[in-house]
Write the structure tokens for this entry.
Amino acid sequence: MIPYGRQDIAEADIAAVVAVLRSDVLTQGPVGPRFEAAAAAATGAAHGVAVSSGTAALHLAYLAAGIGPGSRVWTVPNSFVATANAALYCGATVDFVDIDPVTRTMAPAALALKLEQAERDGCLPDLIVPVHFAGLPAAMAEIAALAARYGATVVEDACHALGAHDGAAPVGACSYSAMTVFSLHPVKIITAGEGGLVATNDARLAARLRLLRSHGITRDPAEMTLPCDGPWFYEQQALGFNYRLTDIQAALGLSQIGRLGAFVARRTALAARYDRALAGLGLGLPRVPAGLASAWHLYVVDWPPASRAEALVALRQAGIGVNVHYIPIHLQPFWRARGFAPGQFPVAERHYAGALSLPLYPRLSDDEQGFVIAQLGALCQAVKAAE
């Protein structure tokens, strides 16, 4: 089976993990801070805070932004459910903004209209969370300007987009946001096995994130409110979580981030080959607006909805592990029970009806990609013949 995504593990990655396993410290040791520093440098942010998953990163970023009971969080329906779920973990209410049909990220025009209505209704959001779908940055300058006009904080869900560029700056530089969240899951751009990262330029937010990821506990005497009884002393200053990344995972992430440029370059080359080979098949192909550079986490084509399910089954039977990204969050039973319904976000729903994610990862060989292209061509011909 050729999967839609998979990790790229080199001997250097294995050696880095083994070195930690042979050391005296497996967690809360020196490798975690080294990985955070390298990740901050790669994203252009002043601070990087590593945690146990991308979901944990979203949860802590929302909490650090002050989200809690009574808060309102807006994101897009075209994402994995964690983007919205993390707001519920904080006690917030969630609403969605429809996507742009070309970028499949938050549509500034839809956001502007929704903000105008929310101002009239007295229910403006506290937090806006655009999602950089498939590795392509959202229209952050426009979204940030709208958020500032209406007094909302912005957190970027860049779980797909480590290594992408928004104009002259890397995604994660937080040029338009308070924080940017990344995932280190095996199918993402780099992996730590599991893991997440929050990038920020705000030292206060970074300190809050570090406090919350480890039970709300500090061992720094300079941060304590009570007299320090001795070197064993610690204070719990907030209700935090055990969201730490182990040194084992951090070692893998640190080794991988050194190849970030190579990973993105290979993904970009594979995407360009898909662009060329699939151009005449009548499929909707992903487009990257001028001035942006995608990290190409996913290559999602728009297949004719009437035959999408049949095509997916046929490709999987041929050994090609295509997938669908994403079922709109608001269509899930959990969210329908909270008042959402089909038809509310029509662009996201139309995207879902034809979305088909093709294999795309650094170790996808030219021959494997050629096989995928050939199978797609044959299927497209069969669909046209049946029309």
Remarks:
- The mean pLDDT is 97.
- Residues 366-386 form the longest helix (21 residues).
